[in-house]
Task: inverse folding
């Protein structure tokens, strides 16, 4: 009887240890990086609304980047679309949008991602400053929710195939407003003496430990090399 109880206790203990191991492994793979856009494009502090919050994590297999954007909703006009289903949209930077840039400084290859609170997005692959290799690529997942009238949350899955190899720098931006009230905000802004917003100033991007999020390998992702 005692032997049977000891055996059961041992089995339960092993199961608990195994479950704790799986939980810890899941937490490790889903390590999150958080960023807050608190400045205008020229380093002036932003004071009239709460900052855009960006969270980067990954799937357990580290093959997809998970992006969450928690941002104020300014209710700018939505992009005009002939489709009832939002998706890739050209020149999305002309609307209310949050943009993320992932740069490989060794090659100057970078991925530009733009997300709208209305469900539209834009994906661009660039081989140097403003040199577009591809654009209007599709994402497997992008959804938007509105917790309140003045807030939106966007969640996207970005496959490994869209990233260049050796991503090591990052920047993010937020744009809203129209005409003379157009506002440009930056995670890592340009210097105060800059004359106009330019989100392709790669010299202002800052270090990102991207290898802890995705298994990039030594080569650019498949979307950089195929003809689609």
Result:
């Amino acid at each position: 009887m005692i032997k049977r109880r000891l055996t059961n206790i041992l089995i339960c203990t092993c199961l608990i240890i195994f479950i704790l191991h799986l939980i810890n492994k899941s937490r490790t793979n889903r390590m999150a990086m958080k960023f807050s856009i608190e400045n205008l494009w020229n380093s002036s502090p932003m004071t009239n609304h709460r900052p855009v919050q960006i969270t980067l994590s990954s799937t357990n297999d580290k093959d997809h980047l998970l992006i969450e954007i928690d941002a104020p909703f300014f209710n700018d006009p939505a992009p005009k679309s002939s489709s009832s289903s939002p998706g890739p949209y050209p020149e999305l930077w002309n609307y209310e949008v949050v943009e993320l840039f992932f740069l490989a400084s060794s090659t100057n290859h970078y991925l530009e991602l733009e997300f709208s609170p209305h469900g539209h997005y834009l994906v661009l692959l660039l081989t140097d400053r403003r040199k577009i290799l591809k654009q209007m690529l599709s994402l497997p997942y992008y959804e938007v929710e509105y917790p309140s009238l003045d807030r939106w949350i966007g969640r996207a899955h970005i496959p490994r195939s869209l990233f260049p190899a050796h991503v090591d720098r990052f920047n993010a931006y937020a744009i809203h407003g129209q005409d003379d009230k157009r506002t440009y905000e930056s995670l890592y802004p340009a210097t105060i003496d800059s004359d106009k917003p330019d989100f392709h100033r790669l010299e202002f991007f800052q270090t990102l430990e991207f290898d802890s999020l995705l298994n990039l390998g030594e080569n650019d992702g498949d979307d950089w090399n195929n003809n689609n």
Observations:
- Helices lie at 2-29, 222-225.
- The chain has two domains: 1-30, 33-225.
